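hey can u check if this looks right to u? its 415 residues, i copy pasted from the old doc so theres a chance i mangled smth
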Amino acid sequence: MVTRHDFVIVGGGIVGLATAYALGTRHPDATLLLIEKEDDVAQHQTGRNSGVIHSGIYYAPGSLKARMCRAGNASITAFCDEYGLPYDRCGKVIVATRPEERAGLERLHARAVEHGLPVRRLDAGEVREIEPHVQAVAGLHLSMTGIVDYAAICRTLAGVILARGGQLRFGTEVTGVRQDTGGYQLETSAGPAAAHVLVNCAGLHSDRVARMAGADPQSQIVPFRGEYYELRPERRHLVKHLIYPVPNPDFPFLGVHFTRMIDGSVHAGPNAVLAFAREGYHKTALNLRDLGESLRYPGFQKLARKNVREGAMEMWRSLSKAAFVRSLQTLIPEVTADDIVPSKAGVRAQALTPGGQLVDDFLLVDGPSALHVCNAPSPAATSSFEIGRTIAARVPVPAHLSAAHHPGRKQGALL
């Protein structure tokens, strides 16, 4: 007889862990199981992102991204304060490097004001006071942007979940999901599991898990690899805080930028190229199923046709270090090819509609006794506690939890 858990969460990145944390907070008597196919937490998007605590300046007013990022900026740092995890509100400058970018900078300033974000306009001299090596005609300063180690937050979350009586099952891949009268039966590589309520936070594989469970996300995950370099230690002085360009409004990514990490290193990037595998962290990584799904998908075909020029530039920047360096030199002219060395890449799980539109907001898809997080790219890490609270408030509650109290739960188990 398979024990049926009140909540089963699929995915051990920061969104899955923050969801388990929120469910445990809201329903302290619930039995909870988190399933992760890797051997540890934060092995994909969470552990390979830039570590930025975002402000929310880029996101459309009223969107989930805008609301959750603004609140998440506070809740992430509150959690770090509670558990003694380091972070740094180092601030961020967004710079216009050419006069024609001033209009884009003004649009961002107006959006920051609309969101209620503390923002300051900078002239060229004021940019140099903050970032002496940056070439710019104008800029914006966002003091609330910071940096943190999201993998460390995940490890702490895992410990809290276990201490509260939750279970974490690593090295366990979900291979099938079937709805039944009590909720869901899951087939996994480590044997069956059962849930009254299923929460899918599977990131790069979230659309597949959703479809296994009978949900239709009306989109497909298309993986984009972001490749990074980092500055050699003796050149880290070139970057004091975080330095971003004015994003191209016709291209759905932010452009290469400089990020000071919490360990003191400085990363430069990323570009954005189609990954030939959903977990394709290297240029040579290939999964025929993943690649075939992307290339055959009408949405990707339409996106590629619309962004031929930008896509070609990104691919060239992936192949040519010199081209990558030239992009960096638009921000800091002193950077040379000798100053940077390759760093680990990440893959962004981006949902794309059949019409070729990138899903621009977080996408939460309801199912019978289930919720599927089918699009959670950046700023999902910043927003993770808010996403978790939203899910915990939105999913159905097993009847016995509201009807009875179940004391005496045991310490959790790492399975």
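The chain has three domains: 4-46+151-219+361-414, 92-143, 222-235+250-358.
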